[in-house]
Amino acid sequence: MPTAREVLLDAALSALATLPWTSVRMVDVAAAAGVSRQTLHNEFGGKDGLARALVRDAADGYLAGVEQALGSAGGTADRLAATAAWTVRAVRANVLVKALLTGCWSERLPSPGPPPAGYASPLPGPRGADPGPPAPTELLRRAGERAVAALDGERPPRGREELAATCEIVLRLALSYALVPAPPEAGGEPAPLVRHVVARAPDAVSGTSPRAGDRSPRRSPGRSRPA
After folding, report:
1. Deepest of 15, 32, 80, 165, by most Cβ within 10 A of its Cβ?
2. Over the stretch 202-222, which tens digit does the pLDDT of each residue have?
3. What is the value of pTM for the model shown?
4. 215: in domain
5. For residue range 161-172, what is the model confidence (pLDDT) as tens digits?
6. Do both 7 and 67 map to the same domain?
7. What is the rounded end-to-end Cα distance, in angstroms, of the chain?
């Protein structure tokens, strides 16, 4: 059963789908969540606290999705293809994830920075120590670190470096698809191009060794599946 905090965050995000953040009222968010306004204030301390929680929740949700995609079946290419597909879906479905990964914050969105100096949060523990949203490069770095950790099969140092570079290429490629969709005749999704990139990475990353002159996409070991 969802907690009051989760229900309130869902209600605030739903309100943001139709209203600019400046027009989202705390009383309406509380009513939509079916809780009292005092409960909302107890959880977030005010509208700025709610904004910071919304943005942090979007970042955490994106990274959780990255970990889930990396845990899917298949080899390196399949798992990175699933990660790229998740990134595209997350950016298209959640305006806050899009803003976090691109740094483009419209006037309709909450754009919370760190709490002001001397700010005393009413929230205990981690919720009271909120440094603000991660920059796009930081969020992408965290996603890349999760990818390397999930895919690194005790590679030698050079192999880990190549894997990290490949993961970053895949994530940036996914962002390009999310912002500028591929034409329908190209399939519209990044999975085929991700597999192409991984297949041509060094053996320590892809598990394949393309033959000289071979320009056709090749899949890495493991069961392929649609992303």
Report:
1. 80
2. 765 765 443 333 333 333 333
3. 0.79
4. no
5. 999 999 999 999
6. no
7. 30
